[in-house]
Amino acid sequence: MSDPRTLAVYDSRSSDYARMMEREAETDPMIARFIAACPAGGRVLDLGCGPGHYARRMAQAGLRTDALDASAAMVDMALRQPNVSARQGRFEDLNARGVYDGIWAYFSLLHAPRSVLPDHLAGIAAALKPGGVLFMGMKRGSGSKRDSLDRYYEYYQREELETRLTDAKLTPVAHWTGKAAGLAGHPEGWIVIHAHA
C-alpha cells in the first residue's frame, strides 16, 4: 500500500531525489554489504527502487537486477539504468515465489502503514529462495507522521522489527544504526537490518 500524497512528492521531486541518491549510492557501505551477501550472478530485487541508483550498483556487480517502485517518475529513471529491469508497482504487487537470492527494501517499507507491514514481510519471505538475503532500512523512533515534504513515515525500534521479521519466518542476523537528513533536510535516526529466509 502506498500513500498517494507520498507518491506525489516523489513524482514532483524526482530530479532532486535522484541527485541525492546518485551521491548516496556511490558511498553507502550498506549496498556493498548486500552485494557481498548475495551469491555471484544471483537474482535480486530492489523493492521501492526510487531512481534506481542502488539497483545500478547491484547490476554492475553482476547481479540479475529487478526493480519495483510505485512512483511513475522513479520507474522512468530506473529504466534508464544499465541492466536493470524496472516496473511500476506497489509492495503488495510482489507475488514472486522463491525466485530471489536477495531483496533490498532500503527505506521504502517505512512508507507503508504499520498494519500492513506483516503482509509485506510475508510477501518478501515468499519471494526469497531458501537462505535468501533481505536488507531492510527503516527510520528509528515510534509512531507515524508526515515530514515537511508531506511524505508519510512509520517509525520503528529494532526489537519490534526483529519480532516482525521473525513472525514472517525471516531470521535477523545483523543490524546497523545511524542518523541522516535525507531529502527533507531534517536529521533522523535510521536502522538497517540484514535478515535471511
What would the keywords be for this entry?
globular; alpha/beta; nine-stranded mixed sheet; Rossmann fold; 197 residues
Could you characterize the architecture of this molecule?
This protein has 197 residues and is of the alpha/beta class. The chain is built from 7 helices and 9 strands. It has helices at 4-12, 14-27, 29-37, 53-60, 72-78, 117-127, 158-167; strands at 43-47, 64-69, 84-88, 100-106, 128-140, 144-146, 152-156, 171-180, 188-196. Strands 1, 2, 3, 4, 5, 6, 7, 8 and 9 form a 9-stranded mixed sheet that branches. Strand 6 (144-146) and strand 7 (152-156) form a beta hairpin. It is globular and about 40 Å long.
Question: Care to give the gist of this entry?
Answer:
The chain contains 7 helices and 9 strands. The protein is an alpha/beta fold.
Q: How would a crystallographer describe the biggest sheet?
A: 9 strands, mixed
Helix content: 25-40%
The average pLDDT value, as a whole number, equals 93
End-to-end Cα distance: 23 Å
**Residue windows where pLDDT falls under 50 for at least 5 positions:** none
CATH overall fold name:
Rossmann fold
- Look at the helices and sheets and give the structural class: alpha/beta
- Count structural domains: 1
Instruction: Write the element-wise H/E pattern from the N-terminal end onward.
Output: HHHEHEHEEHEEEHEE
Give the DSSP E fraction (strand runs of 2 or more residues): 25-35%
Radius of gyration: 15 Å
